[in-house]
């Protein structure tokens, strides 16, 4: 050993295969290397004592340095409390019932389980934000942690409810079981999937939550995007309106012969179509997609059943909402189109309530904000000994197509629409008036129309 | 002496009976002498227990996990071998090369040919934790592989296993089956392990090993691994479910003589049993989804349940030690063996630390 070498501090070498560290100071006496043996003096036939590779697989040790990230720990489990109320879902329905319940009972332990981050935001604004120049994050009124703290709720974010074990009164999640005394399902709804003919490889996106919306905006915000919207219902029309206002090139394909056919009269559909067309939305009614190929990175192309062809950046599927009933089905609760509830918003299990877009009451699903607000108050009353009841009557629906906004009271029974003037329609079931539709400037009269209808009923 | 197979057919396919009859007598020897229970591993195959989670078995992941849990309840070292073999079967069932699937799936799924999974390195590579350790250059009709993989389990000289290689010319990752009998390949037993010495674990050395195309599982593992990762990780749940069950049984058994003092311990078997039931229910729910799911959301759920199982295993084995007292320290005691096994649940890929790193990434997305 030369003098120069011995002055060099002893070094360490890492076996890249198994992680064994050769320390020159210690050597490997069992392998024939005396303490102090320099790495370069190790013979080529020496092997790693733990995995058998030669010194060729050793590298000088560089110590890993890392600040401990804030999210290194998993969140603690909520304390086991069999008396608590558990809410599944942190959409508008979940937060509305948490708020109403906290107002009715300041003491109750409430746990909320959500698969996303729990951010509190008004979902209807997803279809107006781009036109108003707002980013997705501008829509958040409170992040999940802050909203939970405000309402005294224990939030289990990023946690999916996998099963409801009704016998043991526990919600099963991948992070453990959560006991409940009362359970509230705020599961929401999902966009119905688009059935594509064989040969199609493109997967359209659907925008049903803030995360989807972030993905949409990150794809189109760079410049002018060419967007294909499939479905001319409420969400399809609102997105068509908003994205054209935001400067994008929008094409809308609707299977039936007019827009919003299930909700508004023929004349209102025509007025809306004319306003959207004037703002350069290309509308194809009575048409379906025959073929869709592509992806978000390279763009999409679509063929219509009339042979027409579209090529562009992104495809949004907006075929309408289907209540999310999977968890309720698996738990053996009564479901039909949605989770079936009584006038107390109770499911077929009296310990389990349901609210919002996942609910079916007397055969009707009402996926609107006003309905869920009324439902939240009734659940809170029901759980705290009150006797309020939900009557399931329709509320006025505001369709935020800003180029031609609409306010609609859905008719209850079959009948006929009568046009009063260019922007006003009334629905008659027999000789009974049970709905209205107001468009453009006439939307300002919706309160008066509600009162008038209330007087008639 | 009673012949092992001289039992009426009705009871033999029940994994609990099978493990009690044929594995329990070997458990101490496996642990202390490092016996690899090859005969029992073949018996599992004879009873169709490696073929539940495949397409042919109707993707019954819950059934596969249940069988592994019964094995792990008796001996988790063997439960780990069971997982290695189930994982290999899962890759072959999904192999992109039809020739590979046609040639290898049936012998492996039936247990006639046993094998392991060298995927720890590949999975860590995809999660940006490690470099790939084997390089495989494209040659006529296959690949030529060089390098060393430390610690691949459920191996013997006549076994097979799957691993991920880097193809340096194209920078692609290739996943393939390795036959341990292939020229240039050698198994080296260097280190001695605790708790898992009977798991047939070796360092695998490759020196110009030719891998023919009919052993390639995927020519593009970066795209393949996300499709099989949820099943790969969820299958492991047989190990913690079995170990936790065994620990609870130890506590329940101890309470017959020590209830008057064990009642003063923080962890009690009834609470742990409630949590075990929750865990099993969550696993069964995810078991119905993993065969067809490849998205990040499902993988997040699977990692969470896997992390939860690690933590619960550690709690249960620690509690079993405290409930058992000095008897747990006997060299042949199952209690201290469970303690060592439970730590393996928490450190085998994906270890608690890997899971938390990946969850931090997935939840921030």
From TrEMBL, chain A:
Pfam families: Pyr_redox_2, Rubredoxin. It comes from Spiribacter onubensis. Keywords: Electron transport, FAD, Flavoprotein, Iron, Metal-binding, Transport. Its cofactor is FAD. The keyword Electron transport applies. PANTHER family: NITRITE REDUCTASE [NAD(P)H], PYRIDINE NUCLEOTIDE-DISULFIDE OXIDOREDUCTASE DOMAIN-CONTAINING. It comes from the Bacteria. The keyword Protein biosynthesis does not apply. Signal peptide: none annotated. Residues 10-61 form the Rubredoxin-like domain. The lineage of its organism: Bacteria, Pseudomonadati, Pseudomonadota, Gammaproteobacteria, Chromatiales. This is FAD-dependent oxidoreductase. Belongs to the FAD-dependent oxidoreductase family. CDD domains: rubredoxin.
UniProtKB/TrEMBL annotation, chain B:
This is Acyl-CoA dehydrogenase family protein. It holds the Pfam family Acyl-CoA_dh_N. The keyword Transferase does not apply. It is an enzyme of class 1 (oxidoreductase). One of its GO terms (molecular function) is oxidoreductase activity. Gene3D superfamilies: Acyl-CoA dehydrogenase/oxidase, N-terminal domain (1.10.540.10), Butyryl-CoA Dehydrogenase, subunit A, domain 2 (2.40.110.10). It comes from the Bacteria. Its EC number is 1.-.-.-. Residues 16-111 form the Acyl-CoA dehydrogenase/oxidase N-terminal domain. The lineage of its organism: Bacteria, Pseudomonadati, Pseudomonadota, Gammaproteobacteria, Chromatiales. Signal peptide: none annotated. Keywords: Oxidoreductase. InterPro entries: Acyl-CoA_Oxase/DH_mid-dom_sf (IPR046373), AcylCo_DH-like_C (IPR036250), AcylCoA_DH/ox_N (IPR013786), AcylCoA_DH/ox_N_sf (IPR037069), AcylCoA_DH/oxidase_NM_dom_sf (IPR009100).
């Amino acid at each position: 050993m030369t003098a120069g070498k011995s002055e060099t501090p002893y070094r360490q070498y890492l076996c890249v295969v198994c992680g064994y560290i050769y320390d020159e100071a210690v050597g490997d006496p069992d392998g024939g290397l005396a303490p102090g043996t320099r790495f370069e003096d190790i013979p080529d036939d020496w092997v790693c004592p733990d995995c058998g590779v030669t010194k060729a697989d050793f590298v000088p040790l560089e110590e890993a340095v890392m600040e401990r990230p804030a999210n290194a720990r998993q969140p603690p489990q909520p304390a086991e409390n069999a008396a608590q109320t558990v809410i599944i879902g942190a959409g508008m329905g979940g937060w509305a019932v948490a708020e109403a319940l906290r107002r009715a009972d300041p003491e109750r332990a409430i746990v909320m389980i959500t698969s996303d981050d729990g951010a509190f935001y008004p979902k209807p604004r997803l279809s107006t934000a781009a036109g108003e120049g707002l980013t997705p994050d501008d829509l958040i009124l409170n992040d999940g942690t802050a909203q939970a703290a405000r309402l005294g709720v224990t939030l289990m974010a990023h946690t999916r409810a996998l099963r409801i074990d009704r016998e043991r009164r526990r919600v099963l999640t991948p992070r453990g079981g959560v006991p409940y005394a009362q359970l509230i399902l705020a599961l929401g709804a999902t966009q119905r999937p688009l059935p594509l003919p064989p040969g199609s490889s493109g997967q359209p996106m659907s925008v049903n939550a803030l995360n989807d919306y972030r993905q949409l905006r990150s794809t189109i915000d760079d410049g002018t995007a060419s967007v294909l919207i499939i479905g001319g219902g409420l969400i399809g029309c609102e997105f068509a309106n908003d994205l054209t206002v935001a400067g994008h090139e929008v094409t809308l394909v609707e299977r039936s012969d007019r827009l919003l056919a299930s909700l508004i009269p023929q004349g209102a559909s025509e007025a809306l179509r004319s306003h959207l067309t004037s703002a350069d939305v290309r509308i194809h009614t009575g048409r379906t997609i025959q073929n869709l190929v592509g992806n978000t990175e390279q763009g999409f192309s679509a063929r219509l059943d009339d042979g027409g062809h579209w090529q562009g950046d992104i495809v949004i599927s907006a075929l309408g909402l289907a209540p999310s009933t999977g968890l309720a089905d698996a738990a053996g609760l009564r479901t039909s189109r949605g989770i079936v509830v009584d006038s107390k918003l109770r499911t077929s299990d009296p310990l389990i309530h349901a609210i919002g877009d996942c609910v079916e009451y007397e055969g009707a699903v009402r996926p609107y904000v006003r309905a869920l607000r009324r439902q939240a108050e009734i659940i809170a009353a029901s759980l705290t000994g009150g006797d309020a009841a939900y009557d399931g009557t329709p509320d006025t629906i505001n369709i935020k197509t800003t180029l031609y906004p609409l306010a609609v009271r859905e008719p209850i029974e079959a009948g006929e629409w009568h046009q009063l003037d260019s922007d006003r329609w009334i629905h008659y079931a027999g000789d009974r008036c049970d709905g209205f539709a107001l468009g453009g400037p006439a939307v300002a009269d919706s309160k008066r129309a509600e009162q008038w209808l209330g007087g008639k009923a | 002496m009673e012949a092992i197979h001289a039992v009426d057919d009705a009871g033999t396919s029940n994994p609990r009976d099978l493990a009690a009859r044929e594995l329990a007598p070997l458990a101490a020897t496996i642990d202390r002498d490092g016996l690899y229970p090859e005969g029992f591993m073949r018996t599992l195959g004879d009873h169709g227990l490696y073929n539940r989670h495949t397409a042919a078995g109707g993707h019954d992941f819950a059934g596969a996990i249940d069988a592994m849990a019964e094995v792990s309840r008796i001996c988790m070292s063997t439960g780990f071998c069971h997982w290695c073999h189930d994982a290999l079967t899962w890759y072959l069932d999904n192999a992109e090369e039809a020739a590979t699937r046609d040639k290898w799936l049936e012998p492996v799924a039936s247990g006639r040919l046993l094998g392991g999974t060298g995927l720890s390195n590949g999975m860590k590579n995809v999660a940006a934790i490690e470099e790939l350790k084997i390089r495989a250059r494209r040659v006529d009709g296959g690949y030529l592989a060089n390098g060393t993989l430390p610690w691949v389990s459920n191996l013997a000289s006549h076994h097979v296993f799957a691993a991920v290689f880097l193809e340096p010319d194209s920078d692609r990752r290739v996943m393939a089956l390795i036959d341990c009998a292939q020229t240039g390949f050698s198994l080296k037993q260097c280190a001695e392990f605790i708790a898992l010495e009977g798991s047939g674990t070796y360092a695998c050395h490759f020196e110009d090993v030719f891998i023919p195309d009919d052993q390639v599982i995927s020519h593009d593992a970066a795209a393949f691994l996300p499709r099989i990762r949820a099943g790969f990780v969820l299958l492991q749940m047989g190990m913690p479910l079995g170990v936790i069950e065994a620990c609870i049984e130890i506590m329940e058994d101890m309470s017959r003589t020590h209830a008057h003092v064990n009642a003063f311990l923080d962890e009690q078997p009834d609470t742990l049993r409630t949590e075990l039931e929750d865990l099993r229910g969550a696993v069964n729910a995810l078991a119905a989804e993993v065969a067809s799911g490849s998205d990040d959301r499902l993988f997040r759920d699977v990692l969470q349940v896997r992390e939860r199982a690690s933590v619960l295993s550690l709690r249960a084995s620690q509690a079993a030690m405290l409930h058992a007292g000095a008897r747990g320290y006997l060299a042949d005691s199952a209690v201290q063996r469970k303690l060592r096994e439970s730590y393996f649940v928490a450190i085998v890929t994906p270890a608690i630390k890997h899971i938390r790193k990946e969850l931090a990434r997935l939840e921030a997305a």
